[in-house]
Design a protein that fits this description.
Elements: H1 4-13, H2 20-37, H3 39-55, H4 61-72, H5 76-80, H6 91-103, H7 116-152, E1 157-162, E2 165-171, H8 172-197, E3 199-200, H9 216-222, E4 227-228, H10 232-237, H11 240-266, E5 274-275, E6 282-283, E7 291-292, H12 294-317, H13 326-356, E8 358-359, H14 361-370, H15 375-386, H16 390-406, H17 417-428, H18 436-442, H19 445-450, H20 460-505
Parallel strand pairs: 3-4
Antiparallel strand pairs: 1-2, 5-8, 6-7
């Protein structure tokens, strides 16, 4: 140990655990996370586990009452204000030492049939389930806005785009309904992730359960978990619960990002689809005419950040051994929390942006009337009125449109029956059996929409039925959310009731 470099390292890092670098990089950040996010679930686990030990007669009520009194002395606000000094490896040992000093050695029995492994995983899951519920609540808030916007714009005619090119007439309500449906699937994936997350690891101990006759079901119920993770090894080693949440969040960000891109394009002066409410735009420092849609721009950027955080979670899981990965999860959890927190805020922001914007309905309708987006219906009409195959009808209409574009007449107002018949003579050798009125009707975007009345189409009556279904789905999704929140609240109330009994009998 004679080199100067080695001596410098020893002087900097110290000779006892923890070294300075390890403390700065790992232990202190983990401690700071735990004191803010883990102290409440940690206390809830202490109490639930203690109640179970009493009910299974592993600890008597007198001893338990002393431990409960000590637990109640933990000042959560004071804990959250503490600074890490390295005296304890982590918050768990710091709290445990406090309880033993306050209640005596009997408090050490609180750790019977329990490990930091099963306890740590339970804390992570309790944290994550709360954030998932918050995110779903925000998603449902946005979903309600989208259903209202669907109804508001059920007759707002616009051009739909495929391959970024004008495709067919539809309505803005039809688009918002499509957003509603992908958001619904995102919510359902978050629900599935919640079901996976909300399972109890308690009783798995380090890896193999315990020789003590504990009751895992009791702790599960007291902590608001809906199931037990059966295999103890899986309970402390399986990380796919957070991976499933990350995947659901990542896909939700991708889905919403695609619509955000549309909104940015439609908000340009060239498109002129809508004007954002003043609180959601920012003026240029030099160009007086500019109104920058910063709210949507930041939404798009933050959605990319959500994707990145979720991908970090999945990457950190990759190639980790199938064993206790609590230490890895200390580093991984904040990325999951950040992703959920940002996505939650984005849902609220985008809802406000959409509900306050002013749509230029007249401009959208005129653009649809002037464009060639309606000519699919013209081809369909030729099939109905002239008995043509669709391919022949498509050939005639396509030739007519190309002729107009070639001659700088790229508007439907120039598409007359004479022009159409010119191409029909070339393709069919005869004129079409069609009147001017039939032609004008076939080129009307409102007629186009009206006859698209199949399931999933933009027809007004069809969309009204769709909206009614989406509102019923909203009620069901809100009821699911309320039920899950009630389960968690009931679990806390159950702990309080059982503690009162213990304290009364243990005096």
């Amino acid at each position: 140990m004679g080199s100067l470099h080695r001596k410098r390292i020893l002087k900097k890092e110290g000779k006892t655990f923890p070294s300075k670098t390890y403390k700065d990089l790992v232990l202190e950040p983990a401690y700071n996370q735990a004191k803010c996010h883990s102290i409440d679930p940690m206390i809830q686990i202490h109490l639930a586990h203690l109640i179970m030990l009493v009910e299974e007669k592993i600890i008597n009520k007198e001893e338990a009452a002393k431990i409960v009194s000590s637990i109640k002395k933990i000042d959560v606000a004071e804990v959250r204000g503490r600074q890490y000094d390295g005296a304890y490896e982590d918050l768990f040992f710091e709290i445990e030492d406090f309880l033993i000093k306050d209640a005596g050695e009997i408090a050490g029995n609180l750790h019977i049939a329990r490990s930091r492994n099963d306890m740590g995983i339970a804390i992570y899951r309790m944290n994550l389930r709360e954030r998932l519920l918050d995110c779903m609540e925000a998603a449902l808030f946005l979903r309600e806005s989208l259903v209202e916007l669907t109804e508001e714009h059920i007759e707002t005619v616009m051009i739909g785009y495929t391959h970024t090119q004008q495709a067919q007439p539809t309505t803005l309500g039809h688009y918002f309904n499509a957003m509603t449906d992908f958001l619904t699937r995102d919510i359902e994936r978050l629900q599935a992730a919640f079901r996976t997350v909300n399972r109890s690891s308690m009783g798995a101990a380090a890896l193999t359960t315990s020789g003590f006759p504990i009751n895992r079901k009791t702790v599960q119920q007291l902590l608001g978990f809906e199931e037990i993770i059966d295999n103890a090894w899986d309970a402390v080693s399986g990380a796919d619960y957070i991976g499933e949440a990350a995947t659901a969040v990542q896909l939700a960000a991708i889905n919403l990002g695609r619509s955000t891109q549309d909104l940015l394009l439609w908000g340009t002066q060239e498109f002129g689809t809508f004007k954002l409410f003043d609180p959601y735009v920012q003026i240029s420092s030099i160009m007086p005419q500019k109104q920058n849609p910063v709210s949507i721009e930041h939404t798009r950027a933050m959605l990319s950040s959500v994707m990145g955080d979720a991908e970090t979670v999945l990457s950190m899981m990759h190639n980790t051994p199938f064993g206790d990965i609590v230490d890895t999860e200390d580093d991984m959890q904040p990325y999951m929390w950040n992703a959920l927190e940002k996505l939650t805020k984005i849902y609220y922001l985008l809802s406000s942006v959409l509900m306050t914007m002013k749509v230029n309905k007249e401009k959208l309708l005129n653009r649809a009337k002037e464009s060639f987006a309606n000519v699919t219906e013209l081809a369909d009409t030729l099939v109905r009125t002239n008995g043509l195959s669709f391919r022949k009808a498509h050939e005639i209409v396509s030739a007519a449109v190309q002729d107009l574009v070639k001659n700088d007449k790229a508007s439907l107002e120039y598409l007359t029956l004479d022009r159409l018949n010119k191409h029909a003579l070339h393709v069919l050798g005869r004129k079409l059996n069609m009147s001017e009125e039939q032609l004008r009707n076939a080129l009307n975007p409102e007629h186009f929409i009206e006859i698209r009345s199949l399931e999933g189409g933009p027809n007004k009556e069809r969309m009204e039925k769709t909206i009614a279904v989406r509102r019923e789905q909203q009620r069901e999704l809100n009821a699911w959310l309320d039920e899950k929140k009630e389960i968690l609240e009931s679990a806390k109330h159950m702990i309080d009731c059982k503690l009162k009994s213990i304290m009364m009998d243990g005096k």
